[in-house]
Amino acid sequence: MELKLTGKKALVTGGSRGIGRGIVLGLARAGADVVTCYRTESEAVTSLARELKEIGGNHQLVKADVSDPAEVDALVEDCRTSLGSLDVVVHNAGVISHVPFAELPVEEWRRVVENNLGGPYLVTQRALPLLSAGASIIFIGSRVATVGIPLRSHYTATKAGLVGLTRSLAKELGPRGLRVNVVAPGPIETEEPAPAEVRERYQKMIPLGRLGTPEDVAGVVAFLASDLSRFVNGETINVDGGI
Predict the structure, then answer these.
(1) Does the keyword Transferase apply (predicted)?
(2) Which residues are paired to 90 by β-bridges?
């Protein structure tokens, strides 16, 4: 039993940094052809393009804002042109901020909701015509969806919304042979390391004694993208070290 993605065609939103970058590189190394999008030009985009070229395969980086319907349409058209169809869609793009609920401006509520929940809605809907039977839709949620966290009520609400969206779509799209699942990371250390005191606090809370890495999340995404998970549908898989 092997995890192989050779011949799979994937779209990963928000793939230039952090967890998204780990997912893009993990899928590419497993043999998938990957289209990913980013919002702003940066060295992270340039270095990702370089790494994907070294891995080999048919990979594309596209500038797109997933909260903008026109830009999502253009992104999906890029997928159609370069890949023809899609076997995997990973919704990673999102935004976050830390604001006391009593002071949370309606503009910031809308920004977070439109990106974290509206983006997955737009991309999934627009990509449906490209999804082949057996395709896997994967939402990157968060462990906070079920436990909550102060100052992030708007962010937590969107991640909880992805769980409901997943359960409904799993039932609605299942007859088409499409699977829909959530991967919910816990504390993950990316290229922007957490402060020492934060890392120490989480290490005491996590039975495995460490923060997660983007590669830890990417491994679960690769499983859900593969045929090994062909009977996994409507689930939320926590990747949190047992916190």
Answers:
(1) no
(2) 12, 138
